[in-house]
Amino acid sequence: MIRFVCVILLTLRFCSPAIAQCSLPDPLKWGINDTVLTSAICYEGALIPYKESEMAWVSKMSEKQLEKYKREYDRLRNAVYVTYPFARTAGVTLNEIQLQLTNFKSKKEKNNYLKSREKELKDQFADPLTNLSVYQGRVLMKLINRQTGNNCYSIIKEYKGGVSARLYQTVAFFFGSSLKQDYDLRNVTDRQIEIIVNEIDGMWYNNYIRPMSSVN
């Protein structure tokens, strides 16, 4: 069995108990020679320049096999970066809808509620698919499963009676059986997706410097 190890070298840890003690420098106090911008982290109350080393691959694969694997991994990583924001937004809406549906007893009430949320479902769930490749769409389906705990086939099947045929057909037409994308960390690809998601969260959604008003 072919095995590989992906190694990422960091100068310093990003997270620190003292992270809240850092303050950003005031641009008005910069000197005339302060012209070079650099990345920095907060470490024990001080802002310190840092740089990530390039990824190093350690593997028993042949050079040709490793290059093929790296291309596939880069393709997956790009797809996750493209689709994860959509999955987060759609996941919040879908989870909220699922919760609200438990408050209705009749099918008519559920359908009326779904129709009232149809524009959100279309904007956040169906419309993004038209700008994605089939491969990216499959990754999005996996990520929505990760955010909601349900595969998209089950979600669409449940909502079909309460949303327009056009919305249903948009999703089904573009990805068909791809809607049945499970998310299971026993699967190698899903574990890779989880690593990439954690990478995005660490740099973006869980980054204390990013304005919270723009976090989904």
Q: Report the helical percentage.
A: 40-55%
The topology string of helices and strands comes to EEEEHHHHHHH
Total count of strands = 4
What's the rounded overall pLDDT mean? 76
Please summarize the sheet with the most strands. 2 strands, antiparallel
Radius of gyration: 22 Å
Distance between the termini: 40 Å
Low-pLDDT parts are 1-20, 211-216
Give the strand order, joined by hyphens, for the main sheet. 1-4
What number of structural domains do the residues give?
2
As a percent range, the share of strand residues is 5-15%
What is the count of DSSP helices, taking H or I runs of 4+ residues?
7
Overall geometry comes to extended
Structural class based on helices, strands and sheet pairing:
mainly alpha
Description:
The protein contains seven helices and four strands, in the order E-E-E-E-H-H-H-H-H-H-H. The chain is mainly alpha-helical. It has two domains: 4-49, no CATH class; 65-214. The strands form two sheets. The protein has a two-stranded antiparallel sheet. Strands 2-3 form a two-stranded antiparallel sheet. Helix 1 packs across helix 4 (134-148). Residues 1-20 and 211-216 have low confidence and may be disordered.
